[in-house]
């Protein structure tokens, strides 16, 4: 099975019920992708990811991080292990980001030129260089179903002039990424010419918080005729209403027959809103990061399990949630685990939060299936 995307139904509000077919499986959209930064969704084993949430279907697709896997354990080691799927024992679909956002976050440790980005490792200070071509080589070695073009993410706030300059670099790098990828994609560890199996490369729309630049960026990338398009450079400190506007304005200029992916968002109510607007794919570290800090998501809003009021609470996190944590454990026990510094706290909190996110998307898919916006 190669790559294909089908839209079964589009609601009045723009939300789409679709299906993304990838070499490692079928993904029902709209979908939320838990983040497995270093080939691991923090505190959650792969067996649990396959079971939690979404009516028992579990996690359909996860995201892994090019920058982190390049530094440790190294992409060539992962290639020798048969690719990241085999390395981490994950047989379902996976996406790798390009490393652009991580390099962007190293603002004091990087130097940008038209050729690429020189940066120092956050681990040991060693010097490295990422070009679009090198990002493609690393992602091909990792072997996720979907790779992303190498891009530059501009800081917020940034002037129109600075944002347009950065956007121009992103477009040039996208073309170089595509050219190199097309030449070398048959080097993916699981490539099969007979079955037409290989990776797919998505573009990333930039343009900061300027609608005219978002339009220009989307149009330039659509000309490259890539299989899918992401909206990048959001959720970097701007107000939520600005994020929503930039997504809405960008969606207007993206193809209706290709998947649309917003990178790095957001809270449960945000991912639901964006899915109903017509976004097909989203990812965020928030479910596990919040869980490790004792913040849980429920149908009644956010719950801080650290609070003393839960010390003798015999109820589940969320009475309407059917996840394995809510079926078995009380708030009192979960508060005790967190207060005691028990590692199990991070596991159970993260499992519940991931289940809540996946169930949110399952509910939205059901609504879209029935034609409700």
UniProtKB/TrEMBL annotation:
One of its GO terms (biological process) is tRNA queuosine(34) biosynthetic process. Residues 264-270, 288-292 are annotated as: RNA binding. It holds the Pfam family TGT. Keywords: Glycosyltransferase, Metal-binding, Queuosine biosynthesis, Transferase, tRNA processing, Zinc. One of its GO terms (cellular component) is cytosol. Its cofactor is Zn(2+). It catalyses: 7-aminomethyl-7-carbaguanine + guanosine(34) in tRNA = 7-aminomethyl-7-carbaguanosine(34) in tRNA + guanine. Gene3D superfamilies: Queuine tRNA-ribosyltransferase-like (3.20.20.105). One of its GO terms (molecular function) is tRNA-guanosine(34) queuine transglycosylase activity. The active site is at 97 (proton acceptor), 283 (nucleophile). Pathway: tRNA modification; tRNA-queuosine biosynthesis. Substrate binds at residues 97-101, 151, 206, 233. Its EC number is 2.4.2.29. Binds 1 zinc ion per subunit. Residues 14-371 form the tRNA-guanine(15) transglycosylase-like domain. InterPro entries: ArchSynthase1/Queuine_TRR, TGT, TGT-like_sf, tRNA_ribo_trans-like. Belongs to the queuine tRNA-ribosyltransferase family. PANTHER family: QUEUINE TRNA-RIBOSYLTRANSFERASE. Catalyzes the base-exchange of a guanine (G) residue with the queuine precursor 7-aminomethyl-7-deazaguanine (PreQ1) at position 34 (anticodon wobble position) in tRNAs with GU(N) anticodons (tRNA-Asp, -Asn, -His and -Tyr). Catalysis occurs through a double-displacement mechanism. The nucleophile active site attacks the C1' of nucleotide 34 to detach the guanine base from the RNA, forming a covalent enzyme-RNA intermediate. The proton acceptor active site deprotonates the incoming PreQ1, allowing a nucleophilic attack on the C1' of the ribose to form the product. Homodimer. Within each dimer, one monomer is responsible for RNA recognition and catalysis, while the other monomer binds to the replacement base PreQ1. This is Queuine tRNA-ribosyltransferase. It comes from Tunturiibacter lichenicola. The lineage of its organism: Bacteria, Pseudomonadati, Acidobacteriota, Terriglobia, Terriglobales. The gene is tgt.
